[in-house]
Amino acid sequence: MSRDPRQPARGVRGGGSPRSRTVQPARWVAYDVIRAVSASDAYANLLLPTLIGEARLDAQDAALATELAYGTLRRRGSYDAVIGLAAGRPVDQIDPAVLDALRLGTHQLLATRVAPHAAVNESVNLVAAEVGRGASGFANAVLRRIGRDDAQTWQQRIEDTARSDDERLALRTAHPVWVIRALRRSLAAEGRADELDALLEADNASPEVTLAALPGLAERGAPARLYAPTAFGSPGGDPRQAIERAGGLVRVQDEGSQLVALALAAALPVRAGERWLDLCAGPGGKTALLGALAHRDGARLEANEVVPARAGLVRNAVRPLPIDVPVHERDGRELAAQHPGAFDRILVDAPCTGLGALRRRPEARWRKSPADVAELVPLQTQLLDAAVDALAPGGIVAYVTCSPHLAETGGVVDDVLRRRDDVSELDAKAVVTELAVSPIDLAGDGDRVQLWPHRHGTDAMFLALLQRIPKEG
Predict the structure, then answer these.
(1) Which residue of 51, 272, 304, 400 has the fewest C-beta atoms within 10 A of its own C-beta?
(2) Is 280 a catalytic residue?
(3) pLDDT tens-digit map of 369-401
(4) What pLDDT score does 235 carry?
(5) Residues 387, 283, 356: CA angle, nearest 5 degrees
(6) How far is the C-alpha of 1 from the C-alpha of 213, rounded, in Å?
(7) In the predicted model, what is the mean pLDDT of residues 423-442?
């Protein structure tokens, strides 16, 4: 049974537990999130709101906890290099609970306006409470060593240890070398390799909150976003009031995610009675958007999600809709194989490395490796193949990833097109250009869409549209 990613790791106490009063509650929350990510691969974006609620933080402290947790996780690789130099030993020789406190303290010392004495003292108190007084002496020495010099000095020191230009860039921008190289290749495929620095900078910026108004069921608010006709911002940054007022018909959703779901419905005119499928539906944002479109256009929608906890999130997402959306819990390949030629439109939002969502999932860059790409590509290809088999003649599949990695995007689509003679590619660029309410810069040759955080202000979503061709005779 898989662990609930919203819960702290075993041995990591929730924000509502009794804690040492020598540490501010916001720092306890940030530390718990960092520990849970390190110890059991928790998802920071799911766990943090839970711990903030348990700790009953006010808006100011919630903002501090968010900045400390996300900032520390985002720049973990660079901070580890600093800590290793200051401690005089590799970070893998430091107790993990102590190391996470050092990461949190280093972030406060080098990247925030927190007073240095508060950053050191509270981090040392964290170590004392979690590990013991003996370890707190070590933490105190390391953090005081780091606090003696400014961020620029430490940055130069760690860059001086680099063995290549890419390692130097990795230390400067807090991205693993393999991710930098993958992103460079993806931009170069569009003739935009010179945008790499802008992309890396955008990955390290906190994204603005974007909301989706489910079409035909909720009114789009203000300020309107540039591209998706359903997308708008959240005045003041807190979306809770708008969501509560709309009864679930307004949702937090990246604008790029909205665009790719809308594109599936807009690719060709919808005929009443069409049957649609969201094959990899968790956590349900795109499913809800497709459900609203299906209701508006007289289509039927089904969803599938193999992970039970995520299937529950899909059910919650579609509950406010005025139509019934059955949610299956099956391997998508098996479900599609049991329904050959049954669906008119299928969304394959394939499991991927998530390299396009590093702004919102700051720990993801340190969690993935090239080995993950090698494991995911066969699954992505099998899901797309299965979806094509499940299409009715003339049906459309939208292949989507929140990763710009070429192996996960164009490589998968090219493989399917090369092996099959019953599918053709539609012009996804033309569909998205027509959908967008403002001119949109979609670079590169071909029919596929690659969105970017630095260029479009969205996650780096990829979209290709394929159509099933009826066999002659």
Answers:
(1) 272
(2) no
(3) 999 999 999 999 999 999 999 999 999 999 999
(4) 73
(5) 80
(6) 35
(7) 97
| Phi, psi of 275, rounded to the nearest 5 degrees | -115, 125
d(C-alpha 28, C-alpha 15), whole Å: 7
The encoded tokens of residue 41 equal 């691969």
- Cβ–Cβ < 8 Å for 383, 280: yes
| pLDDT of the residue at 12 | 45
29, 202, 311, 402: the catalytic one is 402
Please give the Cα distance from 124 to 132 (Å, whole number).
10
**Rounded to whole angstroms, how far apart are CA atoms 205 and 85?**
26
User: For residue 347, what are the β-bridge partners?
Assistant: 278, 398
Instruction: Return the pLDDT at 45.
Output: 87
First to last CA, the chain: 49
Give the 3-state secondary structure of the chain.
CCCCCCCCCCCCCCCCCCCCCCCCHHHHHHHHHHHHHHHHCCCHHHHHHHHHHHHCCCHHHHHHHHHHHHHHHHCHHHHHHHHHHHHCCCHHHCCHHHHHHHHHHHHHHHHCCCCHHHHHHHHHHHHHHHCCHHHHHHHHHHHHHHHCCCHHHHHHHHHHCCCCHHHHHHHHHCCCHHHHHHHHHHHHCCCCHHHHHHHHHHHCCCCCCEEEECCCCCCCCCCECCCCCCEEECHHHCCHHHHHHHCCCEEECCHHHHHHHHHHHHCCCCCCCCEEEECCCCCCHHHHHHHHHHHHHCCEEEEECCCHHHHHHHHHHHCCCCCCCCEECCCHHHHHHCCCCCEEEEEEECCCCCHHHCCCCCCHHHHCCHHHHHHHHHHHHHHHHHHHHCEEEEEEEEEEECCCCCCCCHHHHHHHHHHCCCEEEECHHHHHHHHCCCCCCCCCCCCCEECCHHHHCCCCCEEEEEEECCCCC
- pTM score of the predicted model: 0.91
Nearest to 217 by CA among 230, 227, 228, 226: 230
Q: How far apart are CA 382 and CA 332, in angstroms?
A: 9
